[in-house]
Design goal:
The protein is mostly beta strands. A hairpin with a 2-residue loop joins β18 (272-278) and β19 (281-282). It is built from five helices and 38 strands. Helix content is 4%, strand content 39%. It binds copper (II) ion (CU). Residues 419, 480, 565, 567, 570, 575 line the site of copper (II) ion. Copper (II) ion (CU) is lined by residues 419, 480, 565, 567, 570, 575.
Length: 591
């Protein structure tokens, strides 16, 4: 189904807001951020929405810090009342005319979830991308209630980059973030300043992209009520309206100059593939990517030919050149990624026709730029950016511990499927139970599952300062953005696989599957590492029919952290596991 739906809100009507800046150095590194209920208008023609926000705002203030200058934040939980989001599962996946219910506003016949309605504001804050002692990482079970405060110390001993802070409560992160609990955190350093990159508005602008849906009143008019709606076939929420910095489909007036956009996909589940269009034609050549999750790349990168893919929690640091454009020129940022995202290509040249309600992309709009008069400026882009990292050499990885994780979907009767992870360990020949057999050329390795659920015993004890290789095997039909807390990692490889899972192959803990390192005949994905992924990452897309390998080295802090899928609906349903970083000299004493 590709027919289009009429948009119930006017696109490009509101000016893009720039979140309030909270510069830590101006407050001697001591910040106090209340977490409050508030009211926020997502669009000119919408009533105000009840939200939860840092400082009561959506998004929260952008905290700006300097490398090497610690920041202390007193997070003050002043939430009152209950979750300002109506949560529902519609009884049917599509309406009478075949339109997926997730593409339209309102509850689509669903009843409000009473357990969600009763949530009363327990929270915990995670700084995503932060190199932070475990005590301040925002462990998902260490909550503070309304009236309780938490004082977190952030050392800021890490390179410049765009981080973000958000709610991370066990089992309900998807509701807290959706209610508005997210904000950006920028770290700056000397290297970036040496390069003369734009810093501060108007030429440095953060873009926090999030999809949202709203309620309907009795007469069918949009209310501002935030609605988190899923359906019996799709357990992730893919709302139809894209907000940037809290406004649906906003407009930014730009001078004929080079802008630096700090982009974050802060959606619960939706992956974006961004294409910049002018007069219906893609103009991706205007965009140069200089940074990724943990800051600068080694060299500037062109975007992939289909557009900039950002799954939930991925970031991009972009320079966009408007300098040759006459006043009045308009460029539109569109999304061509259908949902759930499975990595399938879509040509940028066809972006103008990307609307696909049947694949839960009813409105590809993201935002628009309009050029206004001004002096044309176009600084040269440095050819060399970061000099402080390189891909670990094969020598550095000889003897590195290898950890293997299968991403699986377990079918359940009468409730949504569970997306979970299975930590796998190599078995001996005497193992007779369920096993995963991985065949790579001549070599066959058999694994059994050692852990499946978040609360299962910890099996990962990475030693500080030693490289590890983690293999992520995707045995599902969707792309999963896997996020590792603490130190960043680098992507080593993506390799195509074909696999078979017998009926009942995925049980509560056990797993039976055969995996072969060769391309499935029906597989149309490239399984490549894009140039803009050759940096320091903390979230990696693992595509269907793929093994993704990353090299990670934990360096500074010992303690209990976690890794998980950053599709919040997956994370909340057990696609999350702990690991404990351990100093070398303690390893002999580990049981
Ligand atoms: Cu997932």
């Amino acid at each position: 189904m590709t027919r289009t739906l009429a948009a119930p809100l006017a696109p490009f009507a509101d000016a893009l807001p720039v979140p309030q800046r909270l510069v830590a150095a101006q407050q001697h590194g001591q910040l106090s951020v209340p977490i409050r209920a508030g009211a926020h208008r997502f669009h000119r023609d919408l009533p105000e929405s009840a939200v939860w926000g840092y400082d009561g705002r959506v998004p929260g203030p952008t905290i700006e810090a300097e490398r090497g200058q610690p920041v202390t934040v007193q997070w003050r939980n002043e939430l009152d009342g209950t979750l300002p989001v109506v949560v529902t599962t519609a009884p049917r996946a599509a309406d009478a005319s075949g339109v997926p219910v997730q593409c339209v506003p309102g509850l689509s016949g669903g009843t409000p979830d009473q357990d969600a309605a009763a949530l009363a504001g327990h929270t915990v804050v995670h700084l995503h991308g932060g190199l932070v002692p475990a005590a301040y990482d925002g462990w998902a079970e260490n909550l503070f209630a309304p009236g309780q405060h938490a004082v977190f110390h952030y050392p800021m001993g890490q390179r410049a980059g765009l981080l973000w802070y958000h709610d991370h409560v066990m089992g309900v992160t998807r509701f807290g973030v959706y209610a508005g609990l997210a904000g950006l955190w920028i770290i700056r350093d000397r290297r970036e300043r040496e390069l003369g990159l734009p810093e501060e508005p108007p030429f440095e602008v953060p873009l926090l992209i999030q999809d949202r849906n709203f309620g309907l009143d009795e007469s069918g008019r949009l209310t501002g009520q935030l609605v988190h709606k899923t359906d019996p076939e799709v357990m992730e929420a893919f709302p139809p309206f894209t907000a940037v910095n809290g406004k649906v489909w906003p407009l930014l007036e730009v001078q004929p100059a080079t802008y630096r956009f700090r982009v974050l996909n802060g959606s619960n589940a939706r992956t974006y593939r961004l294409v910049l269009l002018r007069d219906g034609e893609p103009e991706l050549h205007r965009i140069t990517q200089i940074g990724t999750d943990h800051g600068l790349l080694r060299t500037p990168a062109s975007l992939p030919p289909d557009g900039l893919v950002l799954a939930s929690a991925e970031r991009a640091d972009l320079l966009v050149d408007f300098s040759d454009l006459a006043p009045g020129s308009e460029l539109t940022l569109l999304n061509t990624a259908a949902a759930p995202f499975d990595g399938a290509p879509f040509r940028a040249a066809n972006a103008y026709s990307a609307a696909d309600p049947g694949r839960m992309l009813p409105y590809p709009h993201v935002m628009r730029f309009r050029v206004v008069p001004g002096p044309a400026t176009r600084p040269a882009i440095p050819g060399e950016l970061a000099t402080d990292y390189r891909l670990p050499s094969p020598d550095a990885l000889v003897g590195a511990p290898r950890r293997t994780i299968a991403l699986v979907e377990r079918e359940l009767d009468g409730e949504p499927n569970m997306l979970t992870m299975r930590e796998l360990v190599i078995t001996g020949d005497d193992h007779t139970g369920p096993a995963v057999t991985v065949t790579d050329g001549e070599q066959t390795t058999r694994y059994r599952a050692a852990a499946a659920h978040f609360e299962d015993a910890t099996t990962f004890f990475p030693m500080l300062d030693r490289y590890e290789v983690w293999q992520l095997i995707n045995l599902t039909d969707d792309t999963h953005p896997i996020h590792v807390h603490l130190d960043p990692f680098q992507i080593l490889s993506r390799r195509p696989i074909r696999y078979q899972i017998p009926e009942h192959g995925i049980e509560d803990l056990s797993i039976t599957a055969t995996v072969t390192l060769e391309r499935d005949p029906g597989d149309e994905l490239g399984h490549t590492i894009d140039d803009n992924e050759r940096g320091l990452k903390d979230t990696v897309r693992v595509n269907p029919n793929e093994i993704t390998e990353i090299a990670v080295r934990f360096t500074t802090y010992s303690g209990r952290y976690m890794y998980h899928c950053h599709i919040l609906e997956h994370e909340d349903r057990d696609m999350m596991r702990p690991f404990v970083t351990t100093p070398a000299e303690l390893m002999p004493f580990m049981a």
